[in-house]
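Side project, low priority. Logging it here so it doesn't get lost.
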Amino acid sequence: MRRGSTLAALGTLGSLLACEPANPCSSSDMYLRARFSQRYVGHWVVTRGDTLTLPELGDRFRLTDLTLDTSRVVVGRTCHFRGVLVFAVPRAETLAVTWYGSGEQALIYGWPADLGPFAGIGATRVGDSLVGAVLFDERLGVQVRPGVTARFVAGRAAQRPR
C-alpha cells in the first residue's frame, strides 16, 4: 500500500510539472508583467533629450523615438516584449530591443555591443510623458564620470486620422 501511494504521489507531481508551460511567455508570471507593462506600450517621440558624447567612443548619441509593443519574445529563461529604438546620431539607425515594465519603470534591453557601453534604458511614466535615462554597463570597460547621463522626455506620437 505504501509503495502504491508513493507512486501515485510521484505521478501527481509529474502531472503538475508537465502542466507548467515550457514557454515562459505562457507562464502565469506573465499576467502580472503584462499588467505592469501596459502603461508604457505605444509609440513615444522624444521631445527633449541630452545628446551624449563619450570621449572614449568619440560619437554623439541622440535618441528620437521609442516604440514599445506587446508582442512577446523569449529571452533566456524569461519573457520580454518587443520594442524599437530609433537614433538620429551617430547614424540613423533603428534597433530591435526587448523590454518589460515593473512596478515603477520600464527597462529596455538589447543594445548591440558595437554601439557602446550601454546596459539599456530605464524609463518611467510621469503624467502623459515617458521620462528616462540611458543606463551604462561598467562591465564593458568604459568609465563614465559620476553625473554623466543621457536623459530624455518623450510624449505619445500623434495618432493619424483614418
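Brief comment: Residues 24-156 form a domain with the Lipocalin fold (CATH 2.40.128).
Revisit when time allows.
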